[in-house]
Structures are given as C-alpha cells and as structure tokens.
C-alpha cells in the first residue's frame, strides 16, 4: 500500500466518523453504539487476519504495543462517544485538530524525533489559531457543550499519547496485528462498561444507527486503525497526526450537508489558518528529508 493512499483513506474515514458516531448512538445510547462497533470491528479484524495470514506476535514488546493501542482506543473512544451527545459532529474533528500539537510534545519526550523545530511549532500554532477562530464564532450550541468539549479534548490527549506509545513499541509489528491486539484489549473493557452502566439491549435501532455501527465497525475500527498504524510505522507520529489539520474542514462540511449543522463564516477564516499551518509544517518536513 502506498503512503498517499493510506493518508487519503484515513482522511475520508476520520472526516465521516464524527457524524457516524452521533448516528450510531440513536436508539441504543452511546455505550451500546461504541460497544457494538468495537465488537463487530474486532470480529472483522480477526477475519481479516485469518484471510491474509497475518502473524500475531506475542512477545513482550508486542503485548506492550497491544496494551498501548487498546488503552488509547478504549479511553479515547469512550470519551468522544460521550462528548458527542453535546458537541456538533463537525466540532469533534475540529477538536481533534489539536492532536498534532500534543503529539509533537509527546514525541519530543518519548521518541528520538526532532518534532519541535521552529517551523513545525509555527505551523501547529497556526492550526490551533484556526481552530480558535472557528470556536470564536460558534455561538451557543447548548448548556452542556462545555463539558462535551472537555470530554473530546481529553479524548484527543489520550489519542495522541497512545499514538506515540504505539509507535515507540510497534516498529516491527504488522499494522493489522496492532489493530487486532488493540481491539482485543479494548473490547472486553467496553463490554464490561456497557454491562455496568447500561446493559439494556435496545428493542429497535433506526436504520441510520445500524448502518452507522456497521460502517464504523468495518471502516472506522478496522480499515481506519489499520491504515493509521500502518502510517505510524513508516512516518513520524507528529507528521501522521497532521491528518487532524485536514479533517476538521471536511468533517464540518459533511456535518453541514448531511446533518444540517451550522456552517458559519468564521469557519472560512479558520480553514485558511489551518491550511497555512499544514503547508508550513509539510514544508519543514520536506526540507528536512531533502
């Protein structure tokens, strides 16, 4: 698989995931939605491993990588599903746009990467400024939006920490093995959480919710994680997470077109800053590689 193809696939999935998360919670609640997604995703992943003949290493470093991936999947997904009850779907991707900055800090602490060069920091700060402009014109989206934003921000933090932790441990592991191992750790935790706080099987799920759960299970939990970990093995973690500076724009547009979410003029100004930050960061990466 080519790296550009993997980038395009992750951008598409990350752009549509926030809205699918909201739709998958209809009828059964957010705990059922995330648990059903992860169980089905784990089943799809095991099937893919068997069909492809991918090996599942079990040495100490591999087990550490699976725990790192599973911890990130469980913590980040649980928080973002809960926060999605209060935050517009496009805003979820916007909040995840902060992950490159957090990832750069974690990479500098945990990995032998020059992730905090001046151009990179400047590019990331431009991206953050773009996100701030979008938020400034957001208006009032409900009384609980602040707590929803905090939940998604915590999800972003866990996601970034897990990404760097996985990259540190999984250099020699197949991406599909890391995906399966991470889901194998996360799925029991999701099931136990659902039983503890809900445990009620929904009598009826809307068609949109069923489709969203299946979509997230196959694309979000298998192909999305597979392509993401594939990129983490070949590129700097901070560069991989530059994806989060593209998906806010596409997710906001998708939320507007498909879910009737407000698309304000401030989004245009924020988009320009985000793209400028991305261009600056990519210029620095290309300069260092030449």
Record keyword descriptors for this entry:
290 residues, mainly alpha
Percentage of residues assigned to helices? over 70%
Our count of domains comes out at 1
Mean pLDDT score: 83
DSSP strand tally: 0
Explain the layout of strands and helices:
Blueprint: H1 3-24, H2 29-52, H3 60-83, H4 89-96, H5 99-110, H6 118-136, H7 145-169, H8 175-197, H9 207-234, H10 237-240, H11 247-259, H12 266-289
Helix pairs in contact: 1-4, 1-9, 1-11, 2-3, 2-8, 2-9, 3-7, 3-8, 4-11, 5-7, 6-12, 8-9
How would you describe this structure to a colleague?
It is a single chain. With 290 residues, the protein is mostly helical. The chain has one domain (3-289). Helices cover 78% and strands 0% of the residues. It is built from twelve helices and no strands. It has helices at residues 3-24, 29-52, 60-83, 89-96, 99-110, 118-136, 145-169, 175-197, 207-234, 237-240, 247-259, 266-289. Helix 4 (89-96) packs antiparallel against helix 11. The protein is globular, with a radius of gyration of 18 Å. The two termini are 23 Å apart. The model has no long low-confidence stretch (mean pLDDT 83).
């Amino acid at each position: 698989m080519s790296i550009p193809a993997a980038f395009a696939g992750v951008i598409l999935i990350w752009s549509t995931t926030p809205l699918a998360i909201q739709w998958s919670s209809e009828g059964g609640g957010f705990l059922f939605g995330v648990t059903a997604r992860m169980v089905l995703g784990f089943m799809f992943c095991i099937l893919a491993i068997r069909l492809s003949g991918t090996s599942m290493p079990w040495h100490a470093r591999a087990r550490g990588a699976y725990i790192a991936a599973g911890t990130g999947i469980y913590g980040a997904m649980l928080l973002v599903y809960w926060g999605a009850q209060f935050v517009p779907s496009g805003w979820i991707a916007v909040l995840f746009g902060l992950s490159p900055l957090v990832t750069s800090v974690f990479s500098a602490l945990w990995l032998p990467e020059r992730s905090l060069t001046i151009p990179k920091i400047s590019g990331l700060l431009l991206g953050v400024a773009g996100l701030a402009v979008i938020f400034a014109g957001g208006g009032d989206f409900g009384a609980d939006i602040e707590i929803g934003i905090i939940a998604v921000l915590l999800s972003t933090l866990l996601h970034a920490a897990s990404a760097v932790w996985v990259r540190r441990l999984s250099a020699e592991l197949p991406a599909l093995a890391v995906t399966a191992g991470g889901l194998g750790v996360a799925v029991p935790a999701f099931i136990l959480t659902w039983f503890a706080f809900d445990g009620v099987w929904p009598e009826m799920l809307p068609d949109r919710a069923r489709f969203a759960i299946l979509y997230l299970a196959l694309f979000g939990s298998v192909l999305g994680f597979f392509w993401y970990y594939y990129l983490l093995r070949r590129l700097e973690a901070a560069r991989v997470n530059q994806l989060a500076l593209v998906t806010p724009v596409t997710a906001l547009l998708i939320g507007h077109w498909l879910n009737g979410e407000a698309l304000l003029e401030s989004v245009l100004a924020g988009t320009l800053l985000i793209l400028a930050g991305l261009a600056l960061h990519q210029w620095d990466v290309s300069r260092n590689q030449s």
